[in-house]
C-alpha cells in the first residue's frame, strides 16, 4: 500500500469513527427527558432486542426492537399511529442504535431523540423493572 492509499484508508476510518460518535451521542439527558415522559408529552422507547429486555427495562418504556424498525415494522407502525404528535425518546444498551433510530425517524418527519442508554436512565434515578416485561 502506498502512502496516499494509506492516508485515504486512515481518513475513511477516522470519518467512520466520528460518525459513530456523533450518531450515538444522546440528544437529551435522561434527567431532562424524564419530565416530558411523566407529563405524557413524550414516550420512552427501549430499542433493544427481546433477549436484552431480561436484564431490565425502564419503567413506562415501550418495548420496540430496533430490528423491527429496520424490518417489517409490525410493532412499530401501530405504535407510531397511536402516539402521533408525541416526542419519541429512544434508548438502547449504549446509545448507538438509539442514535440511528432517531435519525431514521426524524427523516420520516417524526420528533425522535436519542436519550442514550438504559444505564444512563438508571443513573438518573428512573426505576428499572426486571420482571414481568419482555
Q: Which residues form runs of ≥5 with pLDDT under 50?
A: 14-25
CATH architecture: 3-Layer(aba) Sandwich
Number of helical stretches of at least 4 residues: 7
* CA radius of gyration: 17 Å
Please summarize the sheet with the most strands. 4 strands, parallel
End-to-end Cα distance, whole Å, is 50 Å
* Helix-strand topology string: HHEHEEHHEHEHE
Classify the fold: give the CATH topology: Oxidized Rhodanese, domain 1
Features of the shown structure:
134 residues; two-stranded antiparallel sheet; Oxidized Rhodanese, domain 1; alpha/beta; 7 helices
Condensed summary:
The chain contains seven helices and six strands. It has a four-stranded parallel beta sheet with strand order 3-1-4-5, sandwiched between helices. Strands 2-6 form a two-stranded antiparallel ribbon.
Describe it.
The protein is an alpha/beta fold and 134 residues long. It has a single domain (26-129), classed as Oxidized Rhodanese, domain 1, CATH 3.40.250. The chain contains 7 helices and 6 strands; from the N terminus they run H-H-E-H-E-E-H-H-E-H-E-H-E. The protein has helices at 3-24, 30-39, 50-53, 66-70, 76-82, 96-107, 118-123; strands spanning 42-46, 57-58, 62-63, 87-92, 112-117, 128-129. Strands 3-1-4-5 form a 4-stranded parallel β-sheet, with helices on both faces. The protein has a two-stranded antiparallel ribbon with strand order 2-6. Helix 1 crosses helix 6. It is globular, with a radius of gyration of 17 Å. 30% of the residues are buried. The model is unreliable at 14-25 (pLDDT under 50).
